[in-house]
Structures are given as C-alpha cells and as structure tokens.
Amino acid sequence: MNDQLVEKIPSLDLHDFTSGDAEKKNKFVQDLGEAFQSIGFVAIRNHGLSDTLTKDLYDAVKKFFSLPDEIKQKYERLDLAGQRGYIGKGKEHAKGRNTGDLKEFYHVGQELSAAELKAENYPANIWPDEVPGFKETTLTAYRALEKAGQDMLRAIALYLDLPENYFDDKVHHGNSILRQIHYFPIADPDSVPADAVRAAEHGDINLITLLMGASADGLQVLRRDGKWIPITALPEQIVVNVGDMLSRHTNNKLKSTIHRVVNPPRELMHTSRYSIPFFMHPRSEMDLSCLESCIDAENPKAYTDITAGDFLTERLIELGLLKNKK
Ligand SMILES: O=C(O)CCC(=O)C(=O)O
Ligand SMILES: [Fe+2]
Q: Which family does it belong to (predicted)?
C-alpha cells in the first residue's frame, strides 16, 4: 500500500508503455498502479491527441456553446437520460445534492451503424447543424481518447496481475461518453443559489476518465487526509483518473478519488471555463463483481455483485438525469 501524501498528481509518459522497451513499460505500470492506489489521478503526455486536434475540438465546442439557448435546446433529449446531445444549465447535480451544477454540456457516445446500436442498446448520437466540423472533430477525438484509454487499461490490467488484454473485449463498443463542458459565465453571482458550484464534489461513474483541459483553474482532488489538491496539468498533458466502476471491481484497491470544480473568485464569475472529459465505460454486460485477487482478510469484499449497465442506471437516477420508474 502506498501511503504517501502527494502535493501534486504524478506525471507519466504513455510512450513509455507503448514504445516496446520492457523496462520502461514495467516502470510505467508500477508508477501508474501506485498513483491509482493512492491519489487516484495521474497526468499523461504522449496520449495521441495532437495540438491541432485539441485546438479544432475546442474551437467547435466554443462555437456550439455560444449559440443561443433556444438553438442548443433543439439538441436536448431528456428522454435519453442525458446520455446524448445537449444537457442544459443546472440540469445535473452531484449524487446526494439537489442544487444543479453551474454548467451545460454535450454528450457524444459510440458512433455505430444502426444495427450495431440496436444490438448494444445505445441511442444514436445527436449532431448540431449549426457548427461545421463538430461531428468529425468530436469523433476523431473520441477515437483517440478511446485508444489512449485502452492503453491505460492494459497497464492497469498488468498492475493487477491480470492478462494485459483483460479489459479489451469489455470496452470494445463500450458505453463511453465524450462530455464537452461549458461552465457558463454568470453576470450576477447573487442570481444563482448560494451553494451552487461549477461541479460539486463527486466520483466518476465509469472505469477511468481521460480529461482534456484540466489545466484551467478550478479542478481539485480530495486527498486522503481531507486536503483539496489543485490539479496543475501542463497544456500537453491530459489527466486520467479512476472511476467508481474500477474502484468497485478492484474492491477499493484502486481509488476513485472525489474531485470538484470550484467557482472562480466573484469578480471572475463572468468568465467561461471549458473542459472535455472522456468517460470510459465498458459494455453494459461487464460484471463488476470484486476481483477475487483483491479480496483478503484485511480487505473483505466491500460490494455486492452488479453489472456495469445496472450500476449506470442506479447512478443516473441519483444524478437526476433518469426518472426512477419504480
Ligand atoms: O471540468 C473538469 O475539469 C472536471 C469535470 C468533471 O469532473 C466531470 O465532469 O466529471
Ligand atoms: Fe468528474
């Protein structure tokens, strides 16, 4: 068990894992595993997203969010539980809260043929007509992040003494979501509920999250001793963290660390913040039961058995995105 209390999240180079150098690969696996057993977050470079792609993606996202609310609302489909398209201001709240977050966002999932979507039981993507290039750029980024996520999961599998390809078939056509977020400007800070924040503290639902744009101020992670640590990623890095599904599957060996996005100082509330997390989900049928190798006398089994699909449904109800049908 790694008991270090770090002041900043560790930085790793994904090229060390993929370059074919066995020594570097082993070190990457160990460093990643130790980081995920303690702070639950790392910053990664050489993740496969070019500067041009990142810039094009942000340009498209900024264009979309600058459209009038009435136009954006054309792409809001609340019957899809916020799983595709636009989700309006204040609609999502963190688990255990009622006040909505100060954000609007857009969700993109797997782009598959109609037959494949039906087989997986996924809704089709929704694309805005008003922003040329939005679809192409978003899908290119989706695929690059999915590839980087697959490499990260291979490293995690090795750290857990599982076959390197353990997660491969589980994430093939997985229910992953690219979330483009706009923390919108607020002209009068007194006009929003006093306890409203950009993103209230939460753990992510999925296996791992790959986050573009965390370098802008605001993102903080909760260290084990209760101290909030600001994330300071470099422009060329993306941040990768453990989500609740992976934490559950490893019986809490890997940590899904609570994080939040705090509001800027009052005089900067009129400014925007953008970020783009990729939530890497497995296929709905993945069994998230705690791995036997992570259960022992000191670490008794902490969770009941559940599939990824059922776990997601449970959490979407808790987030206010899915109405409880019971
Ligand atoms: O905006 C960020 O930096 C983080 C967003 C986040 O944690 C989330 O959407 O789950
Ligand atoms: Fe998050």
A: Belongs to the iron/ascorbate-dependent oxidoreductase family.
